[in-house]
Amino acid sequence: MYFEMIENFKEDKCIVCHLKNKAMDKFFDDFLYESVNDYSLRDKIRKGGICPEHARKLESFGDVLAHAIIYSDLLRSFKNNHHIEILPRKRKTQDQNMCIFCEKEQGFEDTYTRAFSHYFTAQSQFKSAFAERGFICQRHLKQVLEKMPSMSIQKDLLSIVKHKIDVILHHLEKIKEKNDYRNIHESYTPEEVRAWHMAVEFVAGSKD
Question: pTM of the predicted model, to two decimals?
Answer without folding.
Answer: 0.85
